[in-house]
Amino acid sequence: MSQRALITAFFFLLFALHHDTWWRGDATLVLGVLPVTVAYHVGWTLLVAVGWWLVGRFCWPRNLEAEDAKPSAPPPRPPQ
Amino acid sequence: MIAAVIIGIYLLLLVGLGLLSSRYFRGGTADYFVASRSLGPFVLFMTVFGTAMTAFAMVGSTAETFEYGVGTFGKLASWSALIHPACFFLIGLPLWSLGKRYGYVTQIEYFRDRFDSSGLGYVLFPVLAGLLVPYVIVGLLGVGSVVGGVTGGAFPELFAGTRGAIPPWLTMAIISAVVLFYVFIGGARSAALVNVFQTVVFVGMGLLAFWLIADTLGGPAAASAAANPTKAVRAGNIGEAEFFTYWMIPLSVGVFPHVFQNFLTARSAASFKLLLVMHPIAMILAWLPCVLIGFWATGALIPGTDIPVVPLGGNPNAVLGLMVAKLTSPVVSGLVAAGVLAAISLDAQFIAIGTMFTRDIVVHHFGADRFSDRTLVNIARGFIVAMVLVTYALTFLEPRQIFALGTWCFTGYAGLVPLLLAALYWKRVTKPAAYAAVIVTAVVWFSLFAASNYGADRKFLVGGMLPVATVFASCAITVVVVSLFTSPPPASTLAKFFPSRTSPA
What we know:
The complex is a heterodimer of chains A (80) and B (505).
Chain A: H1 3-17, E1 29-30, E2 34-35, H2 36-58, H3 63-69
Antiparallel strand pairs in A: 1-2
Helix pairs in contact in A: 1-2
Chain B: H1 2-22, H2 29-34, H3 41-52, H4 55-68, H5 71-102, H6 107-114, H7 119-150, H8 168-216, H9 220-226, H10 240-245, H11 257-264, H12 271-296, H13 319-327, H14 330-343, H15 347-366, H16 373-394, H17 402-415, H18 417-425, H19 431-451, H20 467-484, H21 491-497
Helix pairs in contact in B: 1-8, 1-14, 3-8, 3-11, 3-12, 4-7, 4-12, 5-12, 6-7, 7-8, 7-13, 7-14, 7-15, 7-16, 7-17, 7-19, 8-12, 8-14, 8-15, 8-16, 11-15, 15-16, 17-19, 17-20, 18-20, 19-20
C-alpha cells in the first residue's frame, strides 16, 4: 500500500471516528474539568494535525514546486 | 469606563498598524487585491485563520454551548479542524496554482474561464457577494453585543437607554469606520498585517479570559463541577443526524470569496504546509476556552451570592460579555472585548466584495483599458463603502442569534462546493451544469432560509439533518445530471485546465 493510500485511509478513519455515539450521554469530566466528549474531540483534533503533517511530508504535489519558480501571469483581460 | 478606554486604545492601535502597513503598499490593483502574491507561511496561516474565524468563534461558540451544550466543540471546532485544511489542500492549492498561472484575482474569473462563459459571472456575483452580507452582519452583531456587555454602567448619562453601556449601533459604526480606514489605505497587504496582530490578540485574550474566570470560580474543576451536567453531553441537546451533518458547514471555507483571495496572496505552494498543520491546533486554542466558558456559564454564580452570572432568559450572545464583566476586572473586560473585536476581522470580506465588484463587473463589462489602476482601486473602495452602509443598516432589523445566522451563511457557500470540486477535478462538467447548479443552489438555499423564518427558527432541520445537506445534495445532483445530458466542454478548455490528463489535439 502506498504512503498516499495509507494517509487517505487514516483520514477516512478519522472521519468515521468523529461521531462518538458511545459518549453522547456520558457527563463524566476528564481530570474533573473536560466533559468526556470534548476531551475526545480535542485528542481527535490533534490527530488531524498529525495527518496534515503527514500530507505535507509524504503527499505534497510535486508539480506545484515547479509552479513556484514561475512568475505570476497578469490578470485575465475581459473579452473586448 | 476602563473597558471602554482599552477598547479605544485597541482601535487606535489598528489605525496605527494600518498606517504602518500602508508604507509597504506598492500601489496598483495587484498589491491592493492580492498583496502581489508575496505572503510567506506564517503570515498566510495567521491571515487565513484570522479570516476564517469571526464572532462565531468567540461569541457564537460561548452562546451555543450555553444553550445547547458542549457538543458545540465537536460539531464545529473539530470538524473544522479536519474540513478546513482539506479545503485548503484540495481546493486552495489548485486554485492558487491556477491563479498564478492565469492571473486570476477572483473566483468568478476562474469560473468564467473554466466554463468559457462571461454570463456565468453575472449569475455568480450576486450569490457570492450576497452571502457575504450576513457574514458581515454576524461580525457586527458580535462586536455590538460584547462591547455592550463589558461597558455596562460606564456612561450612565450619555447612554441611559442601554443602562450606561455603549449602544450596539455606535460600536458597529466605529468598528466599521476603523476597518474601512486601514482597508482603504493598504488593501490586502494592510489587512494581512493587521490580521496577524488580531489573531494573536483574539487567541490570547480568549485564553486570558478562560484563566481568570476559572480562577474566580475556584479553579477549572470547581467551575465544571458547578455547571449544568445536562450541558456536558450531546443527548437531549442535539440530534445525531444533525451533529453528523455539521461536517458540511466548514466546507464553506472552500468557497468564501475572502478566503479564496487569501489563498492567492501566498508566495509559494509550500506556504500552505504550515497552514494545514497549525490550523487544527489553532482551532483548539481559539474554541476550547470559549466552549468551556459557555459550559461554566450554565452554573456560574456571582461570588458570595446565589445570583446567576447569566440571568435566566438572557440574550445568549451576551454570555461571554457577562461572564467576563461579572467575574473579572474592568481591565480584563476591556482586553477581552478587544479580543472579540480582533476575532471579527471584517477587512478580508470588505476587500473581497470590492475586488469582485471591480474586476468581475466593472472591468469585465467596460474593458480593462477603460480605467487606470488608481481609478479601479477607488471604484473598489467606493463599492466597499456602499456595501458597508447597506450591511450596517440591516443590523437594525430584528437581531438573530449569531450562531444561527452564521450557519445559514456558511450553508449557502458550502452548497456550492460540489460545483467547485467538479470544476477542478471533473473534465466532464459542463457550462449548462454550472449555470443550473448556481441557480438551483441559490433557490434551494433561499427557500429553506425563508422556511426557517429567515433564521429565527434556530432548530430548523430537514429530515433531522441540517439544511446544508439538502443544499449540498441539490447542487451535487444538478452538476452531475445536467453535465451528463449536455455536450462536453471543448478540447481547448480541457487542455488548459487538465494539461497532464488531456491528449494534445
